[in-house]
Amino acid sequence: MNKSLFTLAALSAFAAGAYAQSSVTLFGIADAAVRQVKNGSAGSQKQLASGSNATSRWGLRGVEDLGGGMKAGFHLESQINFDNGTADANKFWGRRATVSLMGNFGEVRMGRDYTPTAYNTFADEFGIVGVGSRGIFSYGAGSNLGSPATTVLRADNTVGYFLPNMGGLYGHLQMAAGEGVNGNKYVGGRLGYEAGPINIGFAYGKTETGATTPDFKNYNIQFNYKFGFATLHTLYDVKEWSPRKTKDLSIGATVPVGPGALKVGYTRADRSGGTAGSGFSDADDSTRLGIGYVYDLSKRTAMYTTYGQVSNKGAARSSVLYTPPAGMLGGEKSSGLEFGVRHTF
């Protein structure tokens, strides 16, 4: 009897120790804002928007220590629309769904993930969301230049490799299988350096768009620098689907003010190669101006306000809503003002 009790106690202790080496975390962001937008001939509209300072989401992530410096992990993340209580209509775990092996060699990650060129855009002063962000051009309507490419932000069926910690040097290689879906087959990479006040990175990606059409290409370089009083955010992003091409130059800043931060940003989208009236011709350029303030109520909760304006030329129809409303005409302005609350859990 004593031997049996000893064995049971030993097994229980082993199980408890093994469980202590694993963890599963529930996480998320709840973000909602009241918003007024105006889009040229489409007129003005009042809205309750979700995810204007950070995309509203919830997810599960976990890691298990396998011993010998090896770990296994997973990450599942789904968008939440706080204005109407829905999730992503197309993919429930649409933001990310990956499984990983990690160690001194780096990380091998498989599943639905952000592309290397997308990772290079995330250090935006507005977090690539909201009416003031450069995300209007990076991921908004027409960002794939009208091609079938689905890989501007994320890709399905990916296998990726991330470099281990190498004294500030970081890198990411990724391949995505098309699996018979035109515009899904992708290959790309990212290499950068982050140490002290500097973060600089270059990324390149190519997506096959069919046997009779050119590949969709995206390459960019981001450079951020932390001064003593502010952080500079810059991005030069180029997308090509011959003969169409767009070159986006963005510059912005985050300036600590009181218990929060003032944010300002500017982008010029220079388009070329398309036919007249297509929205991608030499005459179809756009600019973005954004200004906002985030007031931190605590480490996890903040209030914010943002104003954004997009000026279009020619047939360009870029909007602070990322997808322009049907009634908006080419060359018209778009603007938006929002006030919101963000809570992280």
UniProtKB/TrEMBL annotation:
It is a multi-pass membrane protein. It comes from the Bacteria. Residues 7-314 form the Porin domain. Keywords: Cell outer membrane, Ion transport, Membrane, Porin, Signal, Transmembrane, Transmembrane beta strand, Transport. It comes from Piscinibacter sakaiensis. The keyword Transmembrane applies. One of its GO terms (cellular component) is pore complex. This is Outer membrane porin protein 32. The keyword Transmembrane applies. One of its GO terms (molecular function) is porin activity. It is found in: Cell outer membrane. GO terms for biological process: monoatomic ion transport.
